[in-house]
Specification:
Strand content: 15-25%
Low-confidence stretches: none
Number of helices: 10
Shape: globular
Order of helices and strands: EEEEEEEEHEHHHHHHHHH
Mean pLDDT: 89
Structural class: alpha+beta
Radius of gyration: 19 Å
Number of strands: 9
Oligomer: single chain
Helix content: 40-55%
Length: 265
């Protein structure tokens, strides 16, 4: 059964996050849900979603007919949620959507894809009975049903741990270079880039950028570590290099991000 994780500070959306079964841990980051609240007043909240080479399969139970979307983004997006929404989602780890669902991410444009309309993958018809059962179930049962469907996908695809997972684990070590990782694993730079693009939808440089900035966001939100120290810890040459990269990625300065996050807490 999915285990409740420590939540991000989004109480206004009744946000909860759950760990996957260990058998899926290489391919699934977490499950999450939003809503629903008891208040009758509809309020809208805009949240930033930051790319990390993961993808999301989200089921919207807010209305009588569930809506299923698949999303993969390489840039930060501002998404508006309502406190009346009820969403249940799988957040895939890098390569997870490729190996579990057979989706080649680098062929997708930015944005959300409506299943059954924008595209209908081969597994869509096996997912629909699961979604129908989830619709009338409590959250714990919804997560159980969704996870059983994912495990059936893993079995039908005869899923085994990909060497690309080793590549990713090495690349996201903040001070590892692409060339160094390639040498350690016996891969040329070209092979490394081609494999990562195919299975994760991003280049090695993009992946490293995502995780460096993810680590920086955590340090900015959870500590009073000086920005110069954060820049060096996260693999940047200096504070100016870090601030430029951070602003391009998040559309705000490190100081603005820290102030916004600490004010929420």
């Amino acid at each position: 059964m999915a285990i409740l994780l420590v939540n991000d500070p989004l109480p206004h959306l009744s946000f909860q996050k759950f760990a996957p079964d260990q058998r899926l841990a290489d391919w699934v980051q977490c499950y999450w849900k939003i809503g629903s609240t008891t208040t009758q007043t509809t309020l809208l909240f805009t949240e930033k979603l930051y790319p990390d080479a993961g993808a999301s399969l989200t089921i919207d139970f807010s209305n009588a007919t569930p809506v299923i979307t698949f999303a993969f983004n390489r840039q930060t997006q501002a998404i508006t949620f309502s406190n009346q929404d009820y969403l249940v989602s799988i957040r895939f780890a890098p390569t997870g959507a490729y190996h579990l669902l057979g989706i080649t991410l680098h062929e997708l444009a930015e944005g959300n894809y409506l299943l059954g309309e924008d595209f209908t993958p081969s597994w869509y018809h096996s997912l629909m009975p699961c979604v129908e059962q989830m619709q009338s179930s409590p959250l714990t049962s919804q997560l159980y049903l969704l996870e059983q469907w994912l495990l059936s996908q893993a079995i039908s695809n005869q899923l085994v741990k990909s060497n690309t997972i080793k590549v990713i684990k090495q690349l996201i070590q903040l001070n590892n270079s692409t060339s160094c990782v390639g040498k350690q694993l016996g891969l040329t730079r070209r092979t490394l880039e081609r494999r990562l693009k195919k299975e994760a939808g991003v280049s090695p440089t993009q992946l490293q950028q995502f995780y460096r900035l993810k680590a920086a966001r955590t340090l900015l939100a959870d500590s009073q570590t000086p920005i110069t120290d954060i820049a060096l810890q996260c693999g940047y040459y200096d504070q100016a290099h870090f601030c430029h990269a951070f602003h391009n990625f998040t559309f705000e300065t490190p100081q603005q991000y820290r102030k916004r996050k600490t004010s929420k807490v």
